[in-house]
Specification:
By secondary structure, the protein is α+β, with helices and mostly antiparallel strands. The protein has 2 domains: 18-144, Jelly Rolls; 147-222, Winged helix-like DNA-binding domain superfamily/Winged helix DNA-binding domain (Arc Repressor Mutant, subunit A, Orthogonal Bundle). The chain has helices spanning 109-118, 120-146, 149-164, 182-189, 193-205; strands at 31-33, 38-40, 48-54, 57-62, 68-74, 79-80, 94-97, 102-108, 165-167, 174-177, 209-211, 215-218. The protein is globular and about 55 Å long.
């Protein structure tokens, strides 16, 4: 296992995919999905984990009355289906491509366990990632239950700043270059796209932020 392959610009950590690990090369393929294709649905067998090479994947479930609840929207370099590593046999959520060109690296649970057993540092990162993901989900559920929509948006922007932001040297603003559409953000904080648009424009009028399709700038004087 001297030739290990890592994705470029991984968001959370550089995670291993078996595709170019010599002993797995011949038995491993990437999977491609179009927008609205399901990678898996609730009650499917949980025998793989998945790493996103490129594209976006929505993770969620349906409530008893049929409403879609979005838990996460994941992008390049992020892992999902990870509860299979912990022993879950059936999926309790769905994973759906929301990009027309989503490429997924599937990893069988057995292969994942082999990789974790052979690489202690990798194993530590996987378990740390799972813990952080559960913590983020718990925080998001708290926001949905106890915060108004504007507060949920502002705290979500704080999350984006941690994951995708940097300080702009020229102005001192916090610049967030993110992969989400307004519809994605609306799904993640439990509101509608028109409401997100109204709130973002309201925050812009308050000189809290400026934004365009791919960038949100938290203005220095409001930070």
């Amino acid at each position: 296992m001297q030739s290990l392959w890592f994705f470029d610009n991984v968001n959370l950590f550089k995670v291993l995919c078996p595709h170019k690990v010599k002993i797995y090369t011949n038995e491993h393929n990437f999977c491609s999905y179009k927008k609205k294709d399901y990678i898996y649905i609730e009650a499917d067998a949980a025998n793989k984990v998945y790493l996103i090479e490129h594209g976006k994947v929505k993770i969620g479930y349906y409530s008893e009355d049929g409403n879609e609840i979005v838990k996460a929207i994941l992008t390049k370099g992020e892992l999902f289906g990870e509860k299979a590593i912990l022993g879950d046999e059936k999926r309790d959520e769905f994973a759906q491509s929301i990009d027309n060109e989503t490429s997924i690296c599937p990893i069988s649970v057995d292969t994942m366990h082999d990789l974790m057993r052979d690489n202690q540092n990798f194993s530590f990162k996987v378990y740390k990632f799972i813990g952080l993901k559960f913590k983020k989900l718990e925080r998001r559920l708290q926001l949905l239950l106890f915060k108004d929509t504007k507060t949920r948006l502002i705290e979500f922007l704080d999350e984006l700043c941690v994951d995708f932001g940097y300080d702009c040297d020229k102005t001192g603003d916090y610049v967030i270059k993110h992969p989400y559409t307004q519809k994605d953000i609306a799904s993640l904080i439990g509101t509608s796209r028109p409401t997100i648009n109204i709130l973002l424009n309201g925050l812009k009028e308050e000189n809290y932020l400026d934004f365009n399709r791919k960038e949100i700038r938290i203005l220095k004087k409001s930070a």
